[in-house]
Amino acid sequence: MPSLATVRASNASWKPSYPPVGVFVGGTSGIGEGIVEAFARHTKGNAHILIVGRNRAAATAIFARIEKPPAPDLTREFFECDLSLIANAKRTAAAIVARFPRVNFVFITAGLVSLNGLDVTNEGVDSQIAAMYYSKWALTDGLLPALHAARVAGEDARVAAVHTAGRGGPIDFDDLGLAKCLTGGMSGMQAMVSQLASYQDLMAEGFAERNPDISFTHAFPGLVDTPLLRKSPSTMLRAMYYVRYLVFPGLLWSGKSVAQCGEYQLHGLLQAKPGASRTGENGDDIGLGGKDDAHWEEGKQALWAHTEKIVSEI
């Protein structure tokens, strides 16, 4: 596993010959904020930086703090989007492609953690699963034309969804969408977390099979001190944020800051080859999932068909 010094040196050696367009979904806080800062630092501000999220004030503060663009045509833009509704993700992707015909980097770090059980939106899916999976899929799908245009121009085209690579388990073919998990108490919630990790793996592999010239990565950031719990709709999880060092003592000695995590996650995506990959907490390749799952390929096709139907009907 590479050290932080090695990762920083590797990132510093990255010198794109063009101003890249970076899209940071969930970039207003936590891991996303750390990745935005690392990206701006290692491009020396010579990039278009687009933050997608719910908090315009936070995005504005980040833009004021990071490296300034060296040319007036380089943009810093905020796209407001609540990912608990898939329609918002689709509209946002379309708006970005309309503004930027070529997109080089997409970091999707947005997340929602809740213990409140099933919360079905007017789109017919759970709000947490929409934010953690369906909207990620819809954004990636909607940005494909701009990613392909970047590859045709000889530029980078890379996508990373940050979740829990390496922590997945078998998916339930009778519960695609995880509604049963969300009504199954704590054991159901545990099953949901495991399956969501596999959903991210299968999403990366599904997109890579259909777009082999683009990099699709599912990343695991490890223990990172972020405000995710504080922003949860669950009262219990919000309370846990204030005693997080007692609940997660590893944060004290092995947890990363958001700045450190940003360096590692940027490194992981820069090293990813075209196709699907998974990276660990230090940005190192951990191989693909499903090695001990006899139904992995079947699950990939079933989940893709299910997701495509859900997203296309919204």
From TrEMBL:
Gene3D superfamilies: NAD(P)-binding Rossmann-like Domain (3.40.50.720). It comes from the Eukaryota. Keywords: Oxidoreductase. It holds the Pfam family adh_short. InterPro entries: NAD(P)-bd_dom_sf, SDR_fam, Sec_Metab_Biosynth_Oxidored. One of its GO terms (molecular function) is oxidoreductase activity. PANTHER family: ALCOHOL DEHYDROGENASE-LIKE C-TERMINAL DOMAIN-CONTAINING PROTEIN (PTHR47534:SF3), YALI0E05731P (PTHR47534). This is NAD(P)-binding protein. It comes from Mycena metata. The lineage of its organism: Eukaryota, Fungi, Dikarya, Basidiomycota, Agaricomycotina.
